[in-house]
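Archive transcription. Copying these from loose printouts into the bound notebook so they stop getting lost. Printout 1 of 2:
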Amino acid sequence: MTDRARSGRLLVALALVIGVVASTVLVQIHVTPDSGLCGGGETFNCSGAAHSRWATLLGIPIAMLGLAFYVACIPLVVRGGTVDDETVGGARLLSTLFAGATLYSVFLAVVSVVDVGSICPWCATLYAANVLGLVGASRWGGSPITAVGRQVSAVDRVMNEGGSLLLAIFILLVGVGTFATSRMGPPPAPVDGPEVDLDVLYDDGVAVWGDADAPVRLVEFSDFQCPYCSSLADSVDAMKDEFGPEVLRVEFRHYPLPFHTNARGAAIAGVCADEQGLFWDLHDHMFANQSELTREELLAFAQTTALDVGAFEACLDSDQAAARVDADLEAGEALGVQGTPTFFFNGERHVGGYEANDLRRMIRAAVDAAE
């Protein structure tokens, strides 16, 4: 093996180590409630990317696909250190694969800035790993263009030199990893936090569903542009249908995050809809259409409902509606809310997009305790 090929192989190995570490962190962010908050800084934020519509492919987290890819490539690098001529095809295969990964990284980087509106540091680490792997594999086995030509003309040889092994490991890891992540959900235990007195939140301007004397009170701090908030909203809606207003009282508080460009406007729209008694209609629509929350899109929807569009539009520009949102933000900060969704279940603080089964167990336990 030449010095150039040897250095290229080392670069590929380094790229795989970086890729495995960064992908593992992103998988954890994707599946862990605390890490799954829509929170963080306005410019640098991994949670927004990890829970955006671009974070999955065919229902599988991209981070999981990446982790499987990097791990599956390891045997090719190890084998390349023991046999020279017979593993050139494997190096060429890696060159082509890292070229594709680099192009996909460019696409995700553009999407992150344009659509998500923030930069994910761990994602950027993966992008750098893909570029590093491309450089290393090119030094080791030749440029991607040359590699493609040779692979097309000798597919069987390339597959024998590592492609079939990589594919088999990749499929196995994706299958096992997807099953594992699908089994991981937010636990029904509260996140550690100080005891809070939620009675200070009662006022005339909050959107409420359910009876005042219901045994279960759920106070939700939410952002209409947050994917996990949409997931929690679906779970809460299911519980509203199942238990009814006699058992469950839901109190919605606005907590729009600064890096969600349309979240504050959507929150103000929610306040304006509540003034006309139609908050929950707009609530359901906005969570179901999180990519359509501009002022124009909300006004277009208002025209299809029972809302007084003129009054609604005037309210969108009012200081009173903005003040209502600011009051919720201040209340959330006083209660230690750092991201969305955060909700208080009979005074206990919880974070993350809980599934319906988790909420169901919590509600039943609270009802049994009240009897």
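Printout 2 of 2:
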Amino acid sequence: MVLAGGSGTRLWPRSRSRLPKHLSPLAPDGRSLIRHAYDRATRLGGPVLVVTASDQADQVRSAIPELDSDRLLLEPAPRGTGPALAWAAWTARQIHPRAVMVSLHADHYMPDQEATTGALGGAAEWAANTELLITIGVQPTRPATGFGYVEAGEEVPRPRLLKDAPPLLRSRGFVEKPSAERAQQLISTGRHFWNTGLFAWKAELFLEELLLHAPEVAARVEDAVFSGAPGSAEFARAWGVIPSGAVDRLVLERSSKVAVLPAQVSWTDLGSFLDLYQSAIAAGEGDGSQNVLRGDALVIESERSYVDSGGGRMVVLLGVGDLAVVDTEEALMVCPLERVQEVSRVVAELRERGRSELL
């Protein structure tokens, strides 16, 4: 299943409510991230579900025209990844009573297809043969403050059926978006991995753990599932009273059945303009001065900058470096690359000032 929600506030003004991050052509090859995610899911085999907001339905259908309408789960209102995954689990169990779910995010970029498919398939194999909720972890390459971390402990005993599966480690807990100093401490232990938000588990087991650790959320999701057909007024009313919450907080941080599968994959959530810059450089798209240029842009004696010119005019950099410059029809944003994690502050300030037309 593919989670396709959110708007990517750290990518303003490129990512907005009307063209959110996962529907934007942000991948180095110019395709949308949701297209990448859907193709990633189809390589695993089995039915693919996509969960998104009702007001993004037409855009998702346009991005994935082959997606069957009954595989598109439209949330009447955002309730976080916990309820979204619960609804997907109910749907998966209706498709097959012993369904194993693999959950992907629509806004991640994972260019190594073979390694990614192997890691996701290995997680699914473990999930099918154990009573564990599995999260895929990636070895940190830098002390990123915009990512969550999961600590890994002892190795899970390997069932005989899984003699060729990758090692699985017990989870010792999660740390969400630490400070730079704390992130450096975490990666120095060698036991902490980036928590990618890529999950695998039996649908039935997930619903059981949600009922155990977040019973009100579980009950409300069940009420919504049986209230009426998705898209109906009855479903919208029932969905609207579900308490919001991320799956990490509702289940994973509370359950004793969580395990980490360390994976050697190239992964980024492309959550900031620095991520976009670095992924483009890794794909060989930088010029001789390590500038990455999108659209009509000219750089002179400038270096290590990311320029996204989509506002219908030329953007010129002269004698500068280490900048993110993003130009759209409605807004221009200029920021040091080292401070792009703070772009969400702009969104908060615009909301405070009532500038909804820019959001």
